[in-house]
Amino acid sequence: MTAERFSSTPRGRRARRGFFDRAAPGLARALLGATVTVRSGDGAVRSVRIVEVEAYVRGDPASHAYRGPTRRNRSMFSRPGTLYVYRIHQVVCANLVARRGEAVLLRAGAAEGVPPREASGPGRLCRFLGITIADDGTDVVDGGRVELRLPPVARRSIRTGPRVGIRKAVDRPLRFALADEPAVSRPRLRA
DNA sequence: GAAAAGATTACCT
DNA sequence: GGTAATCTTTTCC
Known about the structure:
Elements: H1 3-6, E1 13-14, H2 17-20, H3 24-31, E2 35-39, E3 45-56, E4 83-88, E5 91-97, E6 103-110, H4 122-129, E7 146-150, E8 158-161, E9 175-178
Antiparallel strand pairs: 1-7, 2-3, 2-7, 3-6, 3-9, 4-5, 5-6, 8-9
The structure holds a DNA duplex (13 and 13 nucleotides).
């Protein structure tokens, strides 16, 4: 079983800096349907189409950036398009930095021929793509091993709801997902 | 230096 | 539905 077997061909144009440089909720919606591709050292490539995300914004007590830069979260204050990867319990989770201090958590992805569960949830998504803590701080705009592509897909309906696993600002509707995607984690979201 | 908390997951009833 | 696993970062003394 090879990694290539599960990869899908990246399509569309590569996202540029300006795509990321905006408030996180707008970036979150724009990321739905985009493709994340990770190239490993041995040449293996894995991609997923993003189907579920969460936005973390300025003044947001649930955000890792709320209390200012620390050793862990410093990537959140880096350039738009930077990857912010952090460890939680036994897994890692990946965010894409929006305007400085804001970020979008990648919660679920889908890939051809892959059971939806494989990339459902932020930890499983990173495990499937091979993203590790070493990828923290990577720039996805400027030619790293992680890149983001924006396929010219038709606009699809987006569902919204509260974020998962947080203790503060629990009611803010900053979770976004594509409708009718099996990989989207529970609880279900409304239109 | 110690303790608590955590943007999770898997497995339990 | 609930909870334990398990470990790093942050915070507090």
